[in-house]
């Protein structure tokens, strides 16, 4: 009976460990350049600031550039993936125009799908932020 319980417990631990997926830098690099993205959620210290980004679109190029189109401006920036695998880190840099300076930071890629990218501000900056991009 003890052997059966030990085997069941070991199998349970292995299956839980196998379920922990993470987003790799290669996956982000593949998916981020496919199409145009918009912000569907942006919170800073728990407060939503998404209304400030209505009408913004972000096009990420394979060469590391970002073209941002807002309702009354067009700007550019840059993106780069870190070497970390768990979590994958996305570095964004923008000029301080149209509120883009609040996106210029290094972000943990919490989730990456074909039509969804969830980011969380990386590090201990004293401020929390979460961003969701959608297609």
Proportion of residues in helical segments: 10-25%
Instruction: Give the integer mean of the pLDDT values.
Output: 87
Output the number of helix runs. 2
- What is the top-level CATH class? Mainly Beta
Q: Architecture in CATH?
A: Beta Barrel
Per DSSP E runs of 2 or more residues, the count of β-strands stands at 9
Reported for the largest beta sheet, the result is:
8 strands, antiparallel, barrel
Q: Structural class, please? A: alpha+beta
Distance from N terminus to C terminus (CA atoms, Å) equals 53 Å
Strand content: 35-45%
CATH fold annotation: Lipocalin
The H-and-E topology, N to C, reads as HHEEEEEEEEE
Query: How many domains make up the coordinates?
Result: 1
- Low-confidence segments, given as residue ranges, are 4-20
Q: Characterize the overall form.
A: globular
Task: Identify the strand order in the major beta sheet.
Answer: 1-3-4-5-6-7-8-9
Whole-angstrom Rg: 18 Å
